[in-house]
Amino acid sequence: MRTSLYIFFSFLFLLSCQKKDCKIAKPKSKKAEIVKLIAIADTLFYDKNKLDSAFYYYNKAKFICNPVTDADNYVAALNRMGEIQQINGDYAGSEATITEALPYLKYVKKTSQIWNSYVTLSTNYLNTYDYKNAILYNQKALQLKTKEWKKLAAKNNIAVILMEEGKYNESLQIFLSLITKKEIINNDEFQAKALDNIGFCYFKTNDLVKAFYYFNKSYEIRQKRNKPFNLGKSYIHFAKFYQKSNPSLAKKYMLQGYEKFSSINNIDERLSSLKLIITNSSNKELKKYSVIYVNLVDSVFEIRQKAKNQFARIKYDSKKEKDENLKLKTHRAENELQLERQKTRNIISYIIIVLSLSLILVLYFYLTSQGNRKKIEATYNSETRIAKKLHDELANDIYHTMAFAESKNLSLTENKEQLLNNLDAIYSRTRDISKENSTIITDENYSKTLKEMISEFNSSNINLLLNGIDTISWNEIDKNKKITVYRVLQELLVNMKKYSTASLVGITFKKTDKSVIINYTDNGKGINLNTITFKNGLHNVENRILAIKGEIDIDSAPDKGFKVFIKFPV
Counting Cβ atoms within 10 Å, is residue 130 exposed (0-12), middle (13-18) or buried (19+)? Predict the structure, then answer.
């Protein structure tokens, strides 16, 4: 009791020390500051296309976010940063940024942020020609519980990727299914894009009639909206359509496409248009557009490289600043807690030493007490069992033999022989009891000892069959299990000889990968398991098998013989 109280108060002391440290180290919430930084990045910079400044503020918000407790803001900031890098052609940098968010998507509550992460990542893979992963992340986006238009957008992305892979028939089936959806029909821009892509798939599969129909249908919608990028895409597809059949008309569309993309300074589409123009030009015109192409490539490379370096520097500087601030905070906190922690460590050390010694002593006395009690119980049970056997099996026989010797004339030959037979029976029973309680050999001679014990029950009236005993690798079996097998079989055979009047007994041994199986069968008179006279013997048999984590099943009925199934692990 005194030890328990000591342990309890020690635990309370340790708990109070831990709580004290936790209160000191608990950081203040920065959620309001994070929301403010993201709002500045959104409204003042991202919406006004000042992407470098927007990137700076998103990165600043991300670095003070806890990615577990404030996963939505953390992932939102990373998504925006990845989009900005993607706009600037830094697909590898964008992929690295979005990848930072992936481990924390499981904490995000807004499914739209998860969708943004997957779609941005898929676009990066598409632009780096990793079509397999591009499709994979669109499929992940499709599995999310989002608005229907987002599911349709993901399907559209998959169709575009298949088109880029040259799988035009597969892509076509998806686009055709999309244009039947009300969300697409009610969205002119999305509908025109899908129709244009359907036309391109038909063009690539040489169905020119359908290709022109869908190109033209898309162009009519785009003319109404009059957006340069979308019109430029239609012009380029018309150019490709007429490239072989009407080169001059194709050239006209190429130049119109280039003009539209130049008006909005869309670098990638300008370069794509110039490639097409150069392919279909010659002489001075070829030289003119080749020079424009080379200069544009050089300019784009320089601009994008500067952007990449700038974004990398922003991320590096923020990390460096965060690491330095963290070091300063840690150093200050350690100075404040140094004395307190030193005292706590000393006290905890003393408590642990005293507690450990107390537990060792308690455990020692407990185990010693348990061991002694089990030894006493085992000794008592053994002595009780032997005493009962001596009383049940020998006392009456000795009394009857003594009475016979006193009342009969021992000079007569038949009386003398009867007395000798009685004494021989008493001797045999005494020897059996002695063997039941003698030490069992468990070394390499165990198999021989077990056979000898079993064979002693073979007689002129009992035919005993033994099978499979030599198939068991007894040297691999635990000593206690071998003793248990010996005693259990001995108990069964003694009961058979005393009660069953069996003439045939079979004992079969079988080894499996992990177990040893023993089947005992005799053709005796059988027993009613509910009213047996030697219930204690069977109870001992069951307890012995269960003690070695084995299984036992006893099956018998009057005039039906006696069967025992035993199984135990090797």
Answer: middle
447 and 564 belong to one structural domain: yes
Strands 515-522 and 562-569: antiparallel
Q: What is the mean pLDDT of residues 308-329?
A: 68
pTM over 0.85? The answer is no
* Residues whose CB falls within 8 Å of the CB of residue 518, separated by 6 or more in sequence, listed in order: 485, 489, 507, 508, 509, 510, 564, 565, 566, 567
The whole-angstrom separation of Cα 546 and Cα 567 is: 10
Number of folded domains in the chain?
A: 2
Whether residues 521 and 538 share a domain: the answer is: yes
Residue 514 has pLDDT above 80, yes or no: yes
Q: Three-class SS of residue 566? A: strand
Strand-by-strand arrangement of the 551-556 sheet: 463-467, 504-511, 515-522, 562-569, 551-556
pLDDT recorded at residue 14: 47
Which of 375, 403, 438 is a domain's end point? 438
Q: What is the CA radius of gyration of the chain?
A: 46
Model confidence at 266, pLDDT cuts 50, 70, 90, reads confident
Number of Cβ within a 10 Å radius of residue 192: 25
Q: Which amino acid is at 253?
A: Y
- What pLDDT shows up at residue 392? 63
How far is Cα 153 from Cα 193, in angstroms, rounded to an integer? 11
